[in-house]
């Protein structure tokens, strides 16, 4: 009988009694003999399968040990503060204040390298190979919700907000009432996620952390996976909050940990640093200084200049070796 397992014990007994009474009346009417039967025991009520299970042991203990500067909710708060500030200088000032005075307004005690790696997911990249539709597919199964409804909600929107919305509506995967995640837990989760390729493995891995997330936690984790925290701040604004020379060093080294070691050092105090080019380190393209007119360029170069000229699709390039300048084609002819 459809829905029988969902009835209360009292209602099931009443239904079973009515069925027995009806069967007795039929046997009496048609003179049917009873055959001994084993007593029927009501089937146990099938409980819904628990989709989300906390599987990161000691999460709350780890949060206490890490201190406030190691909590993921403080990371979320910084992201929100940077997002809500329109001035780039003030964005940098917000970062500098946290990394100097910490969340307790006294001293920063967190892992500054870890904070920077998570604040710059588009720079310090992990490869997850998870596009929007793949994320929707995974979470529709985790939340036990309609895949079609999630896709409709996603149209023209932000996948992190779609997942956050359906997380609050899920009946089988309830959000945590308070965030106890630490930055270490989230970083370890993302590191392991980058190694997984199969759908079932990813689902099981997400389940381990989703049950510990508030809706806002999960929203930011999804944005970390997508590589965009949507706070309108790049590497320059974050690194300038650590040290005035940090971004210049980063352009040469492209290694967050090395940049922080140079700028702050082992003692934790800021020191003056100079950028050094590291072998085999990619260099970002740099644009020349803007010039409004030919006359302005001539004033800036009173002793003459060398220029690159394009002839019939072939660009002539200037190569400098000490004080010697030579022209070459792109094929070095």
UniProtKB/TrEMBL annotation:
Basic and acidic residues biased stretches: 10-20
Designated name of the protein: ATP-dependent DNA ligase family profile domain-containing protein
Gene3D superfamilies from the UniProt entry: 3.30.1490.70, DNA ligase, ATP-dependent, N-terminal domain, DNA ligase/mRNA capping enzyme
InterPro entries: ATP-dep_DNA_ligase (IPR050191), DNA_ligase_ATP-dep_cent (IPR012310), DNA_ligase_ATP-dep_CS (IPR016059), DNA_ligase_ATP-dep_N (IPR012308), DNA_ligase_N_sf (IPR036599)
Region named Disordered: 1-20, 25-48
Stretches assigned to the DNA ligase ATP-dependent N-terminal domain: 72-243
MF-aspect GO terms: ATP binding; DNA binding; DNA ligase (ATP) activity
PROSITE patterns per the UniProt record, alphabetical: DNA_LIGASE_A1
Location of the ATP-dependent DNA ligase family profile domain: 285-333
Biological-process GO terms, alphabetical: DNA recombination; double-strand break repair; lagging strand elongation
PANTHER family listed in its UniProt record: DNA LIGASE 1/3 FAMILY MEMBER (PTHR45674), DNA LIGASE 3 (PTHR45674:SF9)
């Amino acid at each position: 009988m459809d829905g029988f397992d969902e009835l209360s014990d009292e209602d099931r007994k009443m239904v079973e009694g009515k069925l027995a009474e009806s069967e007795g009346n039929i046997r009496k009417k048609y003179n049917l003999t009873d055959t001994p039967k084993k007593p029927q025991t009501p089937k146990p009520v099938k409980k819904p399968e628990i989709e989300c299970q906390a599987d990161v042991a000691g999460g709350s203990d780890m949060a206490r040990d890490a201190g406030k500067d190691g909590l993921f909710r403080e990371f979320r708060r910084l992201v929100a503060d940077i997002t809500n500030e329109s001035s780039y200088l003030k964005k940098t000032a917000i970062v500098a204040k946290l990394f100097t005075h910490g969340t307790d307004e006294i001293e920063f005690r967190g892992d500054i390298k870890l904070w920077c790696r998570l604040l710059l997911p588009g720079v310090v990249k992990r490869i997850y190979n998870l596009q929007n539709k793949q994320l929707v597919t995974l979470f529709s199964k985790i939340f036990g919700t309609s895949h079609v409804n999630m896709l409709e909600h996603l149209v023209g929107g932000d996948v992190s907000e779609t997942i956050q919305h359906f997380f609050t509506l899920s009946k089988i995967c309830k959000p945590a009432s308070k965030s106890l995640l630490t930055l270490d837990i989230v970083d370890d989760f993302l590191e392991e996620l980058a190694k997984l390729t199969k759908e079932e493995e990813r689902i099981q891995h997400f389940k381990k952390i989703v049950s510990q997330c508030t809706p806002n936690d999960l929203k930011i984790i999804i944005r970390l996976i997508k590589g965009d925290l949507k706070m309108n701040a790049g590497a320059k604004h974050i690194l300038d909050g650590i040290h005035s020379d940090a971004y210049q060093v980063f352009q040469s080294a492209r290694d967050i940990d090395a940049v922080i070691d140079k700028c702050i050092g082992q003692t934790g105090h800021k020191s003056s640093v100079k950028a050094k080019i590291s072998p085999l380190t990619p260099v970002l393209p740099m644009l020349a200084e803007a010039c409004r007119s030919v006359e302005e360029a001539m004033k800036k170069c009173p002793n003459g200049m060398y220029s690159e000229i394009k002839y019939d699709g072939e660009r002539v390039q200037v190569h400098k070796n000490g004080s010697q300048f030579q022209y070459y084609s792109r094929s070095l002819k």
